[in-house]
Write a structure and sequence with these properties.
5 helices; 259 residues; 2 domains; 5-stranded mixed barrel; alpha/beta; OB fold (Dihydrolipoamide Acetyltransferase, E2P)
Length: 259
Amino acid sequence: MAVLVLAGVCVELGRWQLHRLDDRKARNDVTRANLAAPPAPIDQIVGAQGLVGDQHAWRTAVVTGRYDASKQIVMRYRNVDDRPGFEIVTPLVLSNGKAVLVDRGFLARQGAELAPGHIPAVPSGEVSITGRLRRSERGGSTNGGTPDNGTARLINGPDFAKALGLNLYDGYLTVDKQDPANDPDFGAFPGPEIDDGPHFFYALQWFFFALLAIGGLVYFSRQDSRGDTSSSDSSADDGPAAATAEEDQPEEARAGAPD
């Protein structure tokens, strides 16, 4: 019984991986469409609610405003192309009073430093940015999206809005182009990973484990059955053989020796 339960669990895990594969393929289709879409004003993409959802990820948005350097946040524990470092997020205040978080770029960590030694200054005056929209980052029960002493671990629009006192879009923007130009010290960000991932092969592994469990159950059941049959045959053979041996003895031997 336990083996059948184990096989059932393996099958369900395999089906779960196939569902994840379907979800990933659907997300990849949305990402490809968004990458190919022409640039558009941010409100035209996300609407009046200002929420960057899954359907908006990697869309190219255009915004114009002024950086608020006094509310700049250093993002810690970031990695780009397997290099540890920091990202610098600065609110860009638009003409309508709303603000969008702009991830200005990546600064690789130098040695064991806990904070970037130099942060490029923001351009003064009006700035025009063309960049990619990203969803707010969430970390479950962690509070990494709440800025603390000018640093944070997650870029989260609602959490930043409370801490910074700004009317922020729920999401953020990574810089592709900026006028005036972005500081060359900033490293660029890689594009999205558009592939099917390992889900199909994980599903095959779980299905294989299920077959292995059932195959093992059948094999050992047959072995036990053969053992029982051999034991039964042996007992049946002992009876006739003993009777035959007794019949072959002389009558005197069976009756006992004469006095």
